[in-house]
Amino acid sequence: MTNQPMPTLHNILAARPHVYRHLKPTPLFPYAGLSQLIGAEVWVKHENHQPTGAFKVRGGLNLAAHLTPEERRGGLFTASTGNHGQSVAYAAKVSGIRATIAVPEGANPGKVAAMRGLGAEVIFHGADFDTAREWIAAEAEEHGGRFVGPTEELLIAGVGTYGLEIVEELPDVEVIIVPVGAGSGACGTSIAAKSINPNIQVIAAQSAQAPAMQRSWQSGQLVSAEMRTFAEGVATRVPFANTQRIMRHYLDDFVLVDDSDIKQAIRLHLEHTHNLAEGAGAVSLAAALQLKDRLAGKKVVLVLSGGNLSTANLRSILQNS
Amino acid sequence: MTNQPMPTLHNILAARPHVYRHLKPTPLFPYAGLSQLIGAEVWVKHENHQPTGAFKVRGGLNLAAHLTPEERRGGLFTASTGNHGQSVAYAAKVSGIRATIAVPEGANPGKVAAMRGLGAEVIFHGADFDTAREWIAAEAEEHGGRFVGPTEELLIAGVGTYGLEIVEELPDVEVIIVPVGAGSGACGTSIAAKSINPNIQVIAAQSAQAPAMQRSWQSGQLVSAEMRTFAEGVATRVPFANTQRIMRHYLDDFVLVDDSDIKQAIRLHLEHTHNLAEGAGAVSLAAALQLKDRLAGKKVVLVLSGGNLSTANLRSILQNS
C-alpha cells in the first residue's frame, strides 16, 4: 500500500466552503421506534435528504472545486452504479462543465434517469462497476478528460463533512455505523469522528453478499470477493487500497450483514422513519440490529447514506415480507 | 363568518424565532423527472423531512411559545388524525409540558406510535376526527387544560414559515400547489406568498373523496360533505370558518383530485424523488398532473406536506399499480 499521507480533519474543514456553497447540512433526527427496537438511543443521519438522494454529492462538489482550467475544459469522466455518478453529474452541472458516466448494464433506472436529468452523458458498458470503470478511464485519457476514481482524497474529504456534522450536532455520540461501498463515506466519517474524539466507536458494515472490502480490512490484504448483493451502493468486487489503509487506521470494527437483513431494515425504515432507504442506506440499521447487545443503552448514529431504491426493488421487498 | 383581523405576514415573521429555535428550514429541490412529466419546472418543498415527518410541527412550536403559565401547567389537549397530534406532542415535549391527544378509531398506527414516542398520552375516541375533537375539547375544560383547535391563528402563522422559505429561496416561483385538510398550510402559504408577490398563484387541492373544504370555498357557505378518502391528512368532514375566510381572500384556485390519482402520485414520488409521501403529501403532485396545461413552462412548487404513510397503505398502493 501507498506511503502518501492520509487525509485529515484539516482536509474536511477545507472542503466545507465548497460543499456548503451548494448544499445545506442534512438532518440528524432521533427515532423512538428504532430506539425501542434496538434498545439504544438511535439517531439517523439523513444523507438521503440530499438533492441527489445520497451523500456522495458532497465529494463531487469538493473535487469539482479543485479542477484545473484544462480539466474543466476536458470534462469529468467516471464510472458508477448510480450515486457517485449523480454526484459527479451534479457537481459538473453546477460548475458548468461536462460529465460522461459509464454505468454497468442493468443499472438502477432511476439513478440513470437522474444522471441524465442533471445533464450528464450516460453510457452503459460491461457487467459490473469494475468493468465499466476500466473502460471509462481509457476513454477519459483518449478524450483529454479528467477521470474521477471513486475513492479520490478530494471525495473522501468532501463526504467527511457529514461526519463532522454528526459530531458537531451530537457531541456525545458514542457509536456511528456507516455502510461501505468503495469506502469514502466510512473514511470521511472515521477521520472526522476519531480526530475529534477517539472514544467514538466507528463501525463499518457491508453486505455479506459482497464482502471484498470487509475481508480485505480483516486480513490486511487486498482480496477480491464474489459480488451478488442487490444493494448496488455496496456492490464492490475489487477492493480499494487507499480507503483500506485509512479504514485500518481508524475503524473500530467492520461487520457483514445479510441481504435479507438489509431488506428487513428497508421495511423498518419505512415503518419507523417513513424514509425510503436504498440497500446501502439500510445497511447501518441492519448492522445495528445485529449488534444490539454491544449497543445497549448507547447513543448511536446510523448513517442513512442514500434513498435511491428502485420502485421494482421496493415492490419486491414489500411483497416478500 | 367572524370579523376578527386575519393573520398577516407580520405574524409569520414573528413566528420564525419560535420555529427556528427547534427546526431548520426544509429543502426545496428541483426534480428533472417530475418536470418532464408535467412539462414545467417542478420543485418539491420537503416538509416530509421534518423530525415529525410533516409541516404541522412548525405551528405547534409557535403555539407552545405563547402559552400562559396556567396553560403550561394544565397541559395541551387536542384531537388529530396524526400529524397535528405529532406537532402538539413534539412542541409539548421540547417545552416540558404534558400533551393529551384524542385520535379516531383506526388511526394510522405509525402516527399513534410516534405521538406516544414523543411522550404524549393518546386516547382513541370516536369514528372520525370531528367526533374525537368534540370529546377532547370537553376533556380539556374539565381538566383545566388548553384545547388546541386545528386552525388556530398561532398554528397558521407557524406553518406559514414554510411558505416564506419557498418565496425566499425561489423568488421567481410562479405557482405553489398546497394540500388542504383543515386549511392551516394553505392559509400560511398563501398569506406569505401573496403578501410578498400577488402574482404568485397559490392553488389548493383536496381529495374528491373528502370535498367539504373545497365545496365551502367555491360556494362561500360552510358546507359539510361526505368523507371517505384514505388520505387522513386531508380527511375533513366539517369545514373551518377561519381558514375558509383566509382562503377566500388569498387563494387563486382550489381543485379536487381523485384518491386513485393521489395513489398514483405516491408511486411517482417514490420513483422520481425517492421520497415516501403520505396521501395528503402527494395531493399537490396529483393536482399538478391534472393542471398540466395551466402549468406548462412555469416554475412550480409542490408542497410535499408529509411523509407518514403506513406500511400497510404503501403495500396496497404498490400492489394495485
Give structural notes.
The structure is a homodimer of 321-residue chains. Chain A has 321 residues and is an alpha/beta fold. Chain A folds into two domains: 214 residues, Rossmann fold, CATH 3.40.50.1100; 91 residues, Rossmann fold (3-Layer(aba) Sandwich). Chain A contains 15 helices and ten strands. In chain A, strand 7, helix 9 and strand 8 form a beta-alpha-beta unit. In chain A, helix 1 packs across helix 8 and helix 3 runs parallel beside helix 5. The longest helix of chain A is centred in the middle third of the chain and has 17 residues.
The chain-level mean pLDDT of chain A equals 95
Cα-based radius of gyration of chain A, to the nearest Å: 18 Å
Number of helices of chain A: 15
CATH fold assignment of the largest domain in chain A: Rossmann fold
Biggest protein-protein interface?
A: A-B, 35 and 36 residues
**What percentage of the residues of chain A does DSSP assign to strands (E)?**
5-15%
Instruction: Write down the oligomeric state.
Output: homodimer
Order of neighbouring strands in the sheet with most strands of chain A? 1-2-10-7-8-9
Structural class determined from secondary elements of chain A: alpha/beta
Estimate the helix proportion of chain A, in percent. Answer: 40-55%
- Describe the biggest sheet of chain A? 6 strands, mixed
Succession of helices and strands of chain A? HEHEHHEHEHEHEHEHEHHEHHHEH
Shape of chain A: globular
Residue ranges of chain A: pLDDT <50 for 5 or more in a row? Answer: none
Distance between the termini of chain A: 44 Å
